[in-house]
Amino acid sequence: MHGPDAWSGPEGLPHRLARMSSLSRDDVAHLAGLARIELSDAELDRMVGELGVILESVAKVQQAPTDGVAPMSHPMPLTNVTRPDVVRPSLGAGAVLAGAPESEQQRFSVPRILDED
Amino acid sequence: MTDLPTDLTRATAADLAGALASGAISSVEVTQAHLDRIAAVDGQVHSYLHVDEAGALAQARSIDDRRRAGETLGALAGVPIAVKDVMTTKGLPTTCGSKILEGWIPPYDATVVSKLREAGLPILGKTNMDEFAMGSSTEHSAYGPSHNPWDLDRIPGGSGGGSSSVLASFQAPLATGTDTGGSIRQPAAVTATVGTKPTYGGVSRYGLVALASSLDQAGPCGRTVLDTALLHAVMGGHDPMDSTSIDAPVPPVVEAARAASVKGMRVGVVKELGGEGYQPGVRARFDESVALLEELGAEVVEVSCPNFEYALAAYYLILPSEASSNLAKFDAMRYGMRVLPEGIDAPSAEQVMAATRDAGFGPEVKRRIILGTYALSSGYYDAYYGSAQKVRALIAQDFDNAYAQVDVLVSPTAPTTAFKLGDKLEDPMAMYLNDIATIPANLAGVPGMSIPSGLADEDGLPAGIQILAPATKDERLYSVGAALEAALVDRWGGPILDRAPVLGAAAAKGA
């Protein structure tokens, strides 16, 4: 496994966290940011405790006899499943945009995607 | 033909199908009887999130017309069904139990729903569920919990508690479900109904709102093993729109349910499922069922699956990891809710996304997304997600070893009978433990079924027995399930649901 010092990616947790066994309030706030969920202070307070209990429990996977075991990501050993490349009917723009929060000129209308500065 | 009960809602789907085929009753009559029942009792049970009275009756009329015109129809044509709200239905709301999808009307049908329509089953409505199928009680539904018809103060199981309570309160003869860690089987167990999680890939996932794609499996729910098999045959089969769909015919589940034989079968009792933490009454009914299987001609042995003790931990890393990725699509841009953050002029797309996901997701969904985000974080991946994937391989290996010795495995479906609404809501780990016996099958992709094993002595509430088979051998579930069901019903002197309390017919239809 990667040691604590192997961390370098921009989306990783702050370096110091790698040695900690449970999550701090700041860690949960950081994770919520990565997951694009704006948590209130009360939600954060509650989540810290709950996640701590869950993490302690799921850490049990580290006690399993997994030496030399190949990881399994999927129950079926499938590779490169494809459909025949044929034209078939698809949804019209009206049907697709019917569920959109906002649309304009047959397009999804979205808030600004760039920062102003 | 079997004589139908005066109240059509008490009939089995198989008997209704027979009476429809012979012309003794019409689909409009059967469908209307269920709509009337819904109007009378759903205010108490809250199984449905949406009832489509006009649509169901229109489908019923169309089937009646086609039958009168002499068309050859499918075995279940005209038998109405309830659809779990995780499946997209063209023109009908699909919320998945979440506020973030409130009011969303999908532009397409899930493959399962298309198959139901083609087979001529009128869709009565959409059933309640824990938000995005995350839960074991329906208490995580954004629209309020469903209630267990055996005791309205108790949970009907989850996530498919809408479908289980629909069946147990006779608001539909059949229902669909999805099972990621037990969401078909555990609700069946606590309501004395039947439910099957087919082999992974046995039923198409196209058009299902995905929770954890490597674990999710749609399946049939019914009140009898034969009814469940008939629905399994309609729902199953290869779908080019789902790359994980098995390209092979549906296993001969109906034939197996009709033959109902366990003679000469080897049945393994899983040593690790059923000891400490299992309610005595659940355990007692299970032991009796195993003894019955032996009387019916099965050879019963104990089998050890030593790595099952790590299954719950592996599951609660793999599921949140996959869910955190799958639920990223709820971004407030293309469909579903959009909420603007307070106090920000001209907010960015990212700020709108974060505000929407805070307002639109419930606490359990947030918990699991954040847990999954953590488990997949660089520096933690190997310790958590990586280890969980290795445990998954060990569990699949345990199943392989077990099936080298036996044809099927059995265990209690859930450790306890239905608990009281509210009892475990504040304790996520206690809630997760409900699925301790059902989760291994999802991790390995093998099929499983729950059927009623009786009522626990200490509380008079239903308990379930789980049957597990090797991948693609789903028919074995029905052989064992139907044989055991026949012996148990004989012992009980009638269907177990005859003993459920009568629901007051005076209650008004709830919101």
Number of strands of chain B: 11
Q: Please work out how many helical segments of chain A DSSP would assign.
A: 3
Residue-averaged pLDDT of chain B: 96
Shape of chain B: globular
Concise synopsis of the structure shown:
The complex is a heterodimer of chains A (117) and B (511). Chain A is mainly alpha-helical. Chain A contains three helices and two strands, in the order αααββ.
What does this molecule look like?
The complex is a heterodimer of chains A (117) and B (511). With 117 residues, chain A is mainly alpha-helical. Chain A has helices at residues 25-34, 41-58, 93-97; strands at residues 103-104, 107-108. Chain A has a domain at 10-58: Histone, subunit A (Orthogonal Bundle). Chain A has three helices and two strands; from the N terminus they run αααββ. Chain A has a two-stranded antiparallel ribbon with strand order 1-2. Chain B has 511 residues and is of the alpha/beta class. Chain B contains 16 helices and eleven strands. Chain B has helices at 13-22, 27-45, 53-68, 111-118, 161-168, 185-191, 225-235, 253-259, 280-295, 311-326, 349-360, 363-375, 382-403, 428-432, 439-444, 475-492; strands at 48-51, 81-84, 123-127, 174-178, 194-197, 218-222, 266-270, 299-303, 408-412, 448-455, 462-468. An eight-stranded mixed sheet of chain B has the order 4-6-5-10-11-9-7-8, with helices on both faces. Chain B has a three-stranded mixed sheet with strand order 1-3-2. Residues 506-511 of chain B have low confidence and may be disordered. At the A-B interface, helix 1 and helix 2 of A face helix 10, helix 11, helix 12 and helix 13 of B.
